[in-house]
Write a structure and sequence with these properties.
By secondary structure, this protein is of the alpha/beta class. It is built from 7 helices and 17 strands. The protein has helices at 18-29, 53-67, 77-93, 100-119, 166-170, 181-191, 212-216, and strands at 9-13, 33-40, 70-75, 124-126, 131-137, 143-149, 172-173, 225-228, 234-238, 270-276, 281-286, 294-305, 314-319, 327-335, 338-348, 355-360, 363-370. The two termini are 38 Å apart.
Length: 373
């Protein structure tokens, strides 16, 4: 659902991808005064094969020329390193698995970028995220904003936006909220945009396509320790608990350890089930259905609610990872910044550091960071 707003100046975050490019064109067609802004958030290996910032900037500038708007580049690398990457390393060092894209949205795209856009005289900012906004009249002429899932549920990105607050949403437009990705591609093709068939970016933005363990090893020391079964049998050696996540199957280098065998002589794969920082031990179990890999209760800290307050305790839907279907749960609020979710259907690989995001139908209510307990 689009918002009816007076036309004004909109600063669009243009990444060089097709989504933000089509967003800029749509807003200009709707009568906005559109300015493009390309954000450079990472510098450490700008000249490597894994960093596409230079090509992304060229694509964004080419699109701006075709659409007929001005564009400028701004460097937020220092802010990104202080507000996002430092937290990323702290979380991994503590044995957790963070989601830096969530923090990047809250701290960079809707804070540093928003502040810069306002300094340019913007009335609104816009991004190529797949999400929708709904304005709800409130007492005394005020307006409350709800964050909704995108019409294209396969591309919905509300999960990554759940930490946004009312003031951030009040100035934001999501032009693609009601559009299918296939339509975005068609528009880009019809306009002759150079990135019409450009592959969508995936994964953590500053890592790119490189091997994750290789990247993390540049910033965190290796700390080898035992890989054990629940019974204490040592199967191998890990490189450091920071380099593994719960539910991980690949990269354990214990494939030759067959352990329990099935009736047909095959052996189930090994999965990471526990990380003990005190003993520096990685515990693995066999089979995706092992009971150690599932749980019915999720505890979360650092809660952030879009309405500015926690929802009433009760029944909702929730995701504990992106692209997961909403799972029925019961919300219990312990304090303003903590909550728990009780799931009638056990959830697989509940991972500390990831985000637990709460939904009431299509409405994203907010969420928090999954804690150990």
């Amino acid at each position: 659902m689009s918002r009816d707003v007076a036309r004004g100046r909109v600063v669009v975050g243009m990444s060089g991808g097709v989504d933000s490019s089509v967003s800029a064109w749509l807003l200009k067609r709707q009568g906005y005064d559109v300015v493009g802004l390309f954000m450079k958030n990472w510098e450490d290996d700008d000249d490597s094969d894994y960093c596409s910032a230079r090509q992304d900037w060229l694509d964004a500038a080419s699109v701006a020329d075709i659409v007929g708007i001005d564009i400028e580049a701004v460097n937020f690398a220092a802010e990104y390193k202080d507000r996002v990457f430092a937290d990323f390393l702290r979380e991994y060092s503590a044995g957790r698995t963070p989601n830096p894209d969530v923090l990047c949205n809250a701290e960079i795209k809707f804070k540093a970028f928003l502040d810069h856009a306002l300094s340019l005289g913007a009335d609104h900012i816009a991004t190529g995220h797949y999400a929708r906004l709904r304005a709800i009249p409130a007492p005394h002429g005020a307006v409350d904003y709800q964050l909704l899932k995108a019409r294209d549920t396969s591309k919905d990105q509300s999960y990554f936006l759940h930490r946004l607050n009312q003031s951030q949403l009040a100035t934001t437009l999501f032009p693609l909220g009601d559009i299918l990705k296939s339509e975005v591609r068609r528009i880009a093709h019809d306009l002759g945009l150079p990135n019409a068939t450009k592959k969508d970016s995936t994964g953590i933005c500053f890592i790119g396509e490189r091997p994750f363990r290789e990247f993390l090893g540049r910033y965190l020391p290796t700390c080898p320790g035992p890989i054990e079964t629940p019974q204490g049998e040592v199967l191998g050696t890990h490189q450091g608990l920071a380099f593994y996540t719960l539910g991980q199957r690949k990269g354990l280098r214990i494939g030759g350890r067959r352990g329990h065998q099935n009736d047909d002589g095959t052996a189930d794969a090994w999965y990471v089930a526990r990380k003990n920082l005190q003993t520096n031990t990685l515990t693995v179990v066999q089979g995706r259905d092992h009971p150690w890999l599932s749980g019915g209760v999720v505890h979360a800290r650092d809660a952030s609610w879009i309405a500015g307050r926690a929802p009433e305790p009760g029944r909702y839907g929730a995701k504990i990872r992106y692209r997961q279907a909403d799972a029925a749960c019961v919300l219990n609020v312990a304090a303003p910044d903590t909550f728990s979710l009780d799931f009638p259907q056990p959830q697989w690989a509940i991972t500390p550091g990831q985000s637990a995001v709460l939904y009431d139908g299509d409405v994203c209510l907010g969420g928090g960071v999954i804690s150990q307990d």
